[in-house]
Amino acid sequence: MMRSVxxxxxxxxxxxxxRSSLSLQQISDRIELPKSTTFRIVQSLEQAGYLVxxxxxxxxxxxxxxxxxxxxxxxxxxxxxxxxFMTDLAEKTKETVSLHxxxxxxxxxxxxxxxxxAPLRAVxxxxxxxxxxxxxxxxxxxxxxxKAELTPLLASVGKASKQTKAELLAELERVREAGFAVSHGExxxxxxxxxxxxxxxxxEVHYCLSVGAPTVRMQMHEKEFVKLVVDAAASISRQFxxxxxxxxxxxxx
Length: 253
Known about the structure:
InterPro entries: GAF-like_dom_sf, HTH_MetabolicPath_Reg, Tscrpt_reg_IclR_C, Tscrpt_reg_IclR_N, WH-like_DNA-bd_sf, WH_DNA-bd_sf. This protein is of the alpha+beta class. It has helices at residues 2-12, 24-31, 35-47, 64-70, 78-93, 136-143, 147-161, 165-178, 215-239, and strands at residues 21-22, 51-53, 59-61, 96-103, 106-113, 129-131, 181-184, 191-199, 205-214.
């Protein structure tokens, strides 16, 4: 049953604003299933009214999605969506998990969760504002900024981080390619953080998810924590309307 649901969701997520209609072969390629299996799934969705077959034999999503979209609570915001995933991440890492966005030349923490009171831990309070100069959260938010918003920040951020404009842009490009950022003692000595972007329905990044911990503990679990943070951010992104990939592989029986 779960595999069937995953396949259906994979078909829906094959469509994008750039490719609003797809051929059967294109859908098959995107969900990585044989054409015969894809045809059975697509045919069932067409009969159920969720896909429309066009005159050129391509498929597109039907207006049933417009009706369903209208049922989504207008008050459902990023905090409500992110909090369950943040709580789960805090329980898995035993560290402080926070949610950040940009406010002018600062990043602001809009939610923070810590499940345990360790003797030594990173403390981030909701409402705390931090200059967009250092730290993994700042890097992620700047890495996905539109050029018009990023350009005015480059001089001050470069000066604070002792980087040239070219070096700073190259670092932000590496963050985009990796899909996350890691920092050790950049903002506070002895404190490390891992951050990943949260994408919205327009494939834009206005928020990032972070885990902060004393460097001595973070370095022991860095690879594990990177995966946990990236997966949690991807889960939040999917519920926030972003096109994050399903983490569970869809295999042919």
